[in-house]
Amino acid sequence: MRVFVTGGTGTIGSAVVAELLRNGHAVLALARSDSSERTLKDAGAEVLRGGLADLDVLRAGVAQADGVISLAFGRDFSSPEALAAAIAEESAAMATLGEALVGSDRPIVTVSGTPSAPGRASTETDPVRTDGPVGERGRSVNALLSLTSHGVRATSVRMPRTVHNRGEGGFAGLLTKAARNSGIVGYPGDGTQRWPAVHALDAAVLFRLALESAPAGTAWHAVADEGDAVRDIAEIIGRRLDLPVQQVPEETFGPFGPIFAMDQPASSAHTREVLGWRPTHPSLLDDLENVQP
Fold first, then answer.
1. What pLDDT is stored for residue 212 in this prediction?
2. pLDDT value at position 181?
3. 2-162+197-225 — its CATH code?
4. Which of 5, 10, 17, 133 has the most CB atoms around its CB within 10 Å?
């Protein structure tokens, strides 16, 4: 299969590109810079130059592919306005990709987040949130999945709050970055709230499985660790960086603060049973031992 991939140089995307190529697929990847183009070509992918906002380029990518994996997302989370702009750009791109696939029966796999379910681990049947600071992402995913009635094999892989590799990435990575800047490892809430996690290399396998065989209109959970207590995550980061660990206000983390403070464990039992997905790489707590002082 020739697969058009957006976001192919990120933590998840680079692992997905390698996973696809390793399993006999060809990759056409979107690149918005010279450095991204070099990285993708070195990995063995073909390159289509353009950014996520270049909707005509996205249509051209779909026209050249047998399937699509949509992973690109902006990197500026410095303010609620910046986050909203990134979500709006992603939503427009996702709608464009879906529309270009109407009537083709070709697959598209998009990325979403695991939902929260009060008092228990969320499952694949729980709806994603369509309100709050990232509600538009949920609405965009739902709109894409609704295209199954228009000849699109759309599926969603829901990612946990931390997708990690070599001790970096996700919410845990943001805690580490903030700690290096502030001199303390701060965490919101009381620290007992749980974050699910997955290694990027394990997540990449699930994206490939969903592309190859997942039924239209389905959602899957790329969750290896059902829920690690945030205090435990912070303690390891503090030990690795030799910094004190303490509770800080939610506002410390800007638009992510309320999300950081939520208890949000998630299960992947259905995904493992149906798609045969088996995570094999280090857990988050083990991988955080790679954080460099």
1. 98
2. 96
3. 3.40.50.720
4. 5
Secondary structure, 3-state, the chain: CEEEEECCCCHHHHHHHHHHHHCCCEEEEEECCHHHHHHHHHHCCEEEECCCCCHHHHHHHHHCCCEEEECCCCCCCCCHHHHHHHHHHHHHHHHHHHHHHCCCCCEEEEEEECCCECCECECCCCCCCCCCCCHHHHHHHHHHHHHHHHCCEEEEEEECCEEEECCECHHHHHHHHHHHHHCCEEECCCCCCEEEEEEHHHHHHHHHHHHHHCCCCEEEECCCEEEEEHHHHHHHHHHHHCCCEEECCHHHHHHHHHHHCCCCCECCHHHHHHHCCCCCCCCHHHHHHHCCC
Contact (CB, 8 A) for 55 and 247: no
In this prediction, residue 280 carries a pLDDT of: 98
Structure confidence by residue, pLDDT tens digits, 223-250: 999 999 999 999 999 999 999 999 999 9
Rounded to two decimals, the pTM is 0.95
Q: Where are the domains of the chain?
A: 2-162+197-225, 166-195+226-290
Contact criterion met (CB below 8 Å) for 217 and 288: no
